[in-house]
Amino acid sequence: MSDKKVRVRFAPSPTGGLHLGGVRTALFNYLFAKQNNGDFVLRIEDTDQSRYVEGAEQYIIDCLNWCGITPDESPVDPGQYAPYRQSERKSLYRQYAEQLVMQGHAYYAFDTAEELEKNRKEIPNFQYGQVYRDGLRNSLSLPQHEVDQLLANHTPHVIRIKVPADQTVGFTDMIRGRVSFETNQVDDKVLLKADGMPTYHLAVVVDDYLMKISHAFRGEEWLPSAPVHLLLWEYLGWKAEMPQWAHLPLILKPDGHGKLSKRDGARLGFPVFALDWEGSQGFNGMGFLPEAFINFLAMLGWNDGSGHEIFTLTELVDKFSIDRINKAGARFDFEKAKWFNAEWIKKAKAESLKAKVKEVLTDKGIDVKDDAYLITVIDLIKDRCTLLTDFYQQASYFFQIPAEYDLNAVKPKWSDEKTAFFNEFISILNKQEDFTSANIEAEFKLLMEQKSLKPGDVMLPFRIMLVGGKFGPHVFDIATLLGRDETINRIEQALAAFTV
RNA sequence: GGCCCGUUCGUCUAGGGGUUAGGACAGGAGAUUUUCAUUCUUCAAACAGGGGUUCGAUUCCCCUACGGGCUACCA
After folding, report:
1. Catalytic: A212?
2. Residue A255's pLDDT band (boundaries 50, 70, 90)?
3. Where is the short sequence motif 'KMSKS' region located (predicted)?
4. DSSP 3-state assignment of A251?
5. Helix %, strand %, coil % of chain A (to 5)
């Protein structure tokens, strides 16, 4: 690999969209490529057209872009090895499949789906391989003239790899080390389907070779099919150029058993997609910062050993190392994901949050006119927001009078003295020259003492008058920001509501 | 069933032949803030089991158990 440029490919299937595991694979691919000044290639795996979802391809690109990952080569930005959609490379695959047949490493199989179904049902541990292939309808078992006849008649058929007997094939995984398989356990996988499309097995080998891929990261679920790929690299005569593989640990369900699936999101109330997809809300829509999303995804199965957990994409590129990727699957923890987001919001400058917060507020019908005012508000409240959507609850009262008050917190203990206090406070505010937080607070406390009231008697009511509830930053800071007129207005409105 | 991969607090993990087995999230308690958060302090919480190897194994090896993945003309 030293004399070869690093080229890493990410090959998502557009049939199911991009979920958590997919984005993480993309991320690790990207980190490794960038760290080695290599290329990050996006190849779209649409071999099964029947399951293709309209718009999926653009969705994948949007997801990567949202995460800050830009492919060096992709269907929209092709490089010298274009095209990058498998469906557009269809003609390439047949010749290699036929070549394998010619060399005796593959064969034509004419069995129908029903016949195979029947065998699988009736024969325990049936697999299309060396044990049963002679009794099935293929170019190995049938006489040559019959095979020629079937082919001439365009009888539907597939091309299968002929897996050899009694061999051990193995490779060194970048994460797991030596992994090996007995060929006797491997079945004759289909390489070319009856419709002429390649299966993943053929396509991935041919494309990785033609696109000069040097390293390939994929999910652990692919490990069992590695021997087929190994054999293919060997039979095609490209063994020396086979990429190095890394099989990533799976992301598991937060509860119960198995790998994380789309249904888990709906069931447990968290996103499994980066962006909204097929009617389910993504991390973006739920109020996650892409920086936080990437950060927490990277830490799911990897760490730099320092104990640090907050990293930017750039830092990740710098620190990333394959040997620090874990072997075991990681359970997805939404609480931890939210913690990452809260950390990123706290860390962010108000200015960089502005556009996103504005969008959240606008969606809720709040018209933000003054950007400088918004910046001040964001600085005041961002430490108490976990998701971007929290900015609505935390900021709305800076822009509109509370729609309702937490009356339970004030009404039971309300008294005429308190009404008098606030009426008097209004007239003080009217006369006050400097409407600063400190001044208002001083006046408030002075009046409080004159009236022999305790802070507990009037501080909370004042907050509820301005905010509507028991939350938010220092109440006098809020009053200053609202301004004299609005503060007085809110006291008056609330007084009316409290004394009904 | 067969094959492959894995196994440290509830979760994500650090560590690695001799450690009080460390951190983070979540949880408990407290301080600060006369709101809610933030922040800070603090508590509880783990090496799957059995055999080896060794003066000594959580760490290395084997077995078992458990978990996961694959076993399609899906990826």
Report:
1. no
2. confident
3. 259-263
4. strand
5. 50, 10, 40
Q: Look at residue A252 and give its three-state secondary structure.
A: strand
Nucleotides of B under 7 A from a protein CB: 1-8, 10-15, 22-26, 33-39, 67-75
Asked if residue A55 has pLDDT above 90, the reply is no
The structural domains of chain A, ordered by start, are 89-248 (3.90.800.10), 262-347 (1.10.1160.10), 348-397 (1.10.8), 401-500 (1.10.10.350)
Of A370, A317, A322, nearest to A481 (Cα)? A370
Residue ranges of A for the binding site? 262
Q: Maximum CA pair distance of chain A?
A: 112
Which nucleotide across the nucleic acid strands is nearest to A459, CA versus C1'?
B34
Burial of A303 (0-12, 13-18, 19+ CB in 10 A): middle
Q: In one letter, which amino acid is A117?
A: E
* Nucleotide nearest A303 (Cα, C1'): B13
**What's the ipTM?**
0.95
- As a whole number of angstroms, the distance between CA A412 and CA A103 comes to 90
Q: Encoding tokens for residue A456?
A: 């507990």
Token output for A267? 């069931």
Q: Report the C-alpha gap between A146 and A142 in whole angstroms.
A: 6
pLDDT at A3 over 70: no
pLDDT tens across A189-230, in order? 999 999 999 999 999 999 999 999 999 999 999 999 999 999
Nearest 5°: phi and psi at A131? -70, -45
